Amino acid sequence: MLGVSQSLLRFWETEFDCIKPHKNKKGNRSYTEQDIEVLRNIYYYTKECGFTLDGAKEQLKKKNTVNEKTQAIDTLLNIRKFLVELKDEL
């Protein structure tokens, strides 16, 4: 979903206490919607805005979520995909 490695996700789990995926007996992780939203926010702050991990932690504490931005981006990507498919059909 985010295009990051599994090791980076595990690292973020150790750094951010708010990420608590459920693990089965094999150790496979299942992320909740809330976990995914936190991971998206961490990705946004660290990769797109250039914050350090401490800066990302501060932003998460301030509740400056990018939920609306990520939803808008997802919507725009879906619209773009639809328009490209429509163009190809014409």
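[next item in queue]
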Amino acid sequence: MKPKHWLVFITLGAIWSSSFLWIKIGVQEIGPMALTAFRMLFGAVTAVAIGVYQKVEWPRDLKTWLIFAVLGPASLAVPIFFISWGEQTIDSAVASILNATTPLFTIFIAHFVLQDDKMTVQKTLGLLIGFVGTVVLLSEDLAVGAQSSVIGQAAVILASIFYAGSAVFGRKFTQHVEGTARGAMLLLTSAIFMWIVGPLAEKPFEFPSLPLTWIAILWLGILGSGLAVLMLWYLIHEVGPTRATLVTYLFPVGGVILGVLFLNEHLSWQLLAGSLLIILSLVVVNWKSTKQVQPAK
């Protein structure tokens, strides 16, 4: 990846590192459907506003809008709901480690769908190193007895599969759409989907009343969705879905580092070892030998 890609990648990881915490806060007052609906709404408003400011060209053909009508909910609304629903019964740390399976699913799906993102020994090794690093990073928290629901864990893994599949198929079918318009349309169709389905599927469909819940919704909507989705899909189309979804390995790193800096949590060997393994995995996946980068003579 080029320096500009790394800058977006690290910024995206920093924004999303706290998402699991804010989701946990949000579902304490309102249901996962309502939380997802509000998040998609504020995300869509943010992304569309950016698109209007940039004067992007919006697709006009029905075929493209139908693609986004399916891809939007599949890439955002559905997996975010599954994670929010799962976090009612599992800890945010557990959710973040399960969400880190996304690149493993991505590399498998991309191998059969895309021509420029094939499974290689190098990529597979790097992904496995990163996943081991994530497990090591959170092993201390998991060992102290976090109460988890098997169904809640399954929901987050299912969300990872949706993230992986939509990243791959989105790369394949949305290349012709301008970057900002692409992210905004995903959020717009997700918001429409959730505000139709949410009030019908979740009874009662509650509006938040606590200030902290509104802060969580605004953070998740404006930053965690509006800006983050634009960055993610920029990376998916620039460096491929496998490398882009590696950002999920940064979630637990960011969460643990924030805990050390702001909550006076202790600096453990698990933090150091896990973080080093994750950094190593990023190096391995993105490493290009001299032979690979030399032009043919």
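[queue empty]
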